[in-house]
## 1
Amino acid sequence: MSSIEKKEIASHELPKTEIDAETMAKRDEKIQVAMIALCGCWGCTLSFLDMDERMIDLLQKVNITRSSLTDIKRIPTRCAIGFVEGGIANEENIETLIHFRENCDILISVGACAVWGGVPSMRNLVSLEDCFTEAYLESPTMLPDQKKVIPFHEDLPPITNKVYPCHEVVKMDYFLPGCPPEGEAIFKVLDDLANGREVDLPRAINRFD
Amino acid sequence: MSITITIDNKEIKTDIGATLIDVAADNGIFIPRLCYMRGKPCLGTCRVCSVKVNGWMAASCTIPVQDGMIVEVDTSEVKDIQKALVETLFSEGTHNCPSCEKSGRCDLQAMGYETDMMVSRFPYRFTERNKENAANLIWLERDRCIFCQRCVNFIQDEETGQKIFSISGRGPSSRIEIDKELADKMNKKQARAASDICPVGCIIDKERGYDHAMGVRKYDITSIRERILKGEQ
Ligand code: SF4
Ligand code: SF4
Ligand code: SF4
Ligand code: FES
């Protein structure tokens, strides 16, 4: 059931203030970048901020559209680059990733979770039933008189049986491993793309941990 | 007897019968490897050291050099095959480096870096293999085992010479096994040696844990490539 049928308004449908024409024109000239955290811990997004002052120069060339930093909820215009943190663990993740693929020229899997599943994929070794039981029915941290319920609501996206890497759902163009990758590595990849160079991550900053 | 072989169009003088992987290292040419240990008998299990010898792919740790041998190492085809072989191991086991005690001193991880691996081209399998509190001093993290057989061949009970480790099953159901009785006789030094010989974080000596911070771990300080080219391993 969509939110419209329920007469609810999603945040991206709220009325918005138009940006003045001059700012808009400057933004249009820049390379549009969208970012998203799927099933991850936001660590990779925080690592993005570790680009520190290098971000100032980068932002002369790049405009960040949808992201957890700008709080824009849908991709407003076609983007050159999509930066994806986290793997696929529920149906909302799938929908969002497809939305990214349809609206971005280049998609990058950033971090172990996006690249191969990472920490959330630890649940791939147990059944979903065991996983829910451990989390909600027999959790060691439950209060003794707490009602045992597995959360279920039409607004909660159904969880997938396993956690999948992004490239098993849509085509991903580049991969940046690490948990999280260092700010330096994220900068190198974005800087290469923003300057039209072939992405070339030096071996010394490629990390799996 | 002195002979001449050619590696990547470079003529190299060496002795007949020397092992190709060593001859390459002695001449500054790095070839990845996971099961081979310099000075120990060749195991030939991982194939990560594959190069082209007289036009055929061959595991260079298994090849005694012969006069006139033509070897290709630094070509995109060879490098891609080596990388694919490393990628299969990351897909076959479960390698969550951020939570692994071996991270930073793991040969598999180091070979991932050396082959410029970013992701595995093969589907990640998440094979379930029980972890086990295997012996007084040893913990087995089975889903990281790459079946190199180093422990099987090179770790023995000091008293009887019997093997302590073995591999059971075949194909996807292969599993590293440990003789509990013999393993419980190991002292700390032996347990540490078994853990060190394992190229991944499968054999864990319990007291070590995460003993070095990032940046000061074995391969953070000197890369596996440099160590191999210096003849250290
Ligand atoms: S890769 Fe690591 S840092 Fe990034 S989202 Fe996953 S758990 Fe967090
Ligand atoms: S064994 Fe090596 S490759 Fe596997 S998780 Fe540990 S550090 Fe990573
Ligand atoms: S336990 Fe370690 S040394 Fe033994 S076969 Fe597995 S990877 Fe090789
Ligand atoms: S190093 Fe040659 S087969 Fe493993």
## 2
Amino acid sequence: MPKEAIVRTIGLKKTYMLGKIPLPVLKGIDLEILKGEYISIMGPSGSGKTTLFNMIGGLDKPTEGKVYIDEVDVAQLDAYELAWLRCRKIGYIFQTFNLIPVMTALKNIMLPMIFAGLSTDEAMEKARQLLMTVGLGERIHHKPFELSGGQQQRVAIARALANDPAIILADEPTGNLDLRTGKEIIQLLKQMNREKKVSVITATHDLKMLDVSDRVIWVRDGLVERVEDRANLDIKVGEVEGEEGG
Amino acid sequence: MAKKIEKQLSLPFKNAFQMSLRSLKIRFGRSVIVTMSILLGIAFLMSVFSTNAFTRALIEKGPETIRVSLQYNQEELHTRSIWLVSLSLLVCVVGIVNAMLMSVTERSREIGTMKCLGALDRFVMELFLLESLAHGLLGSIVGSVIGVLIMSIVFLIQYGGALLSIFPAGALLRYSVISIILGTALAVIGALYPAYVSARMEPAEAMRREV
Ligand SMILES: Nc1ncnc2c1ncn2[C@@H]1O[C@H](COP(=O)(O)OP(=O)(O)OP(=O)(O)O)[C@@H](O)[C@H]1O
Ligand SMILES: [Mg+2]
């Protein structure tokens, strides 16, 4: 039996208007991402990765084309269904962490569960467990500004996992982190992908991400340039890292 | 084909209440500044109102000597008070609305993030309604008390005990109610408008929005 697609895009286009001048950013993206896959969307700065991320996550509307999440056309959803989708189906991780500044680590993780209708006690219990899972058991009551970047991103990962989503969408999750912390975050994402069977989709230009990806989608100028499987990648990783090395 | 999608629940008001209370407490420094802007605007407005109330009381019921001297330039007093009321209203509106706009617009990213986590627009609005209501009520109640107090002291020093017997308590109370309603309404409108704008945006846009 073929694996089910968790995300599908068909002829996805996005054009921003700069005043009266149209700026096409996505020019027709067709993708199929399977359940449980770890996908990296790679491409140079300005190629449209974040824009694609926003479309897949239901955070912005495409100009043309369709996005299907779990075979549901996102454009057909009303505000309540869209909120439900964002709350239950997708966990978001951002380059800038985007924790709610006035809430402790624990409260941040509880928030999506409160939105999902869990009681405070249930949410608190699960948030504690999640903080343990991401290795921050003792940082429960710290506010975001009292945590390092890496720790904030761990909280964000725990928060993304709060309602057991089918998809984790991560936009440059290591963009603001140093090399080692970045590696740890990538390992953590991979571990969640393996253990919880959650599909992970990252938009990134962090080459460290290549090691853990099942497939890499290369985007250039708003189009998919090529899609590579893990098997083909292994050969190239050395080269690419060689280019960067030093 | 919408098979696996449900509708998001609306959270009970209690949740928004708890969350906004916590936000006020934790953002205490910021809350004080916002409340102070409201307080200043209303105190200024209320001091002008009080001056009017005292002057009228003196003209109508005050001792003969004071009455004569005041009536002498009543016309001038009248135009000056219209000017002052308009001016203080302007200061009040601009000050309060500006303070609220700034404090909510800088939280656009937070609103976008909340929507990513599954918040409904209504919940976001409730949150900001409660916060601005708290700022508005506190700022304008304290502000109008201060305005009345200062002007009472000024007039007492100037006209002495004669004022006590004709103290215009009714008029001052009416003016206070007007000021408190005005201050609270301005605070709520000033906060809800930008909150509404951010909540209605696509989350991606709200999170991008720079102040
Ligand atoms: N809201 C917007 N309004 C106008 N132009 C936009 C908007 N968002 C993105 N763009 C433009 O779209 C192009 C692609 O942006 P995008 O953020 O998707 O790139 P990216 O691949 O994520 O880049 P990076 O690796 O630097 O994050 C850029 O040229 C950018 O200026
Ligand atoms: Mg980007």
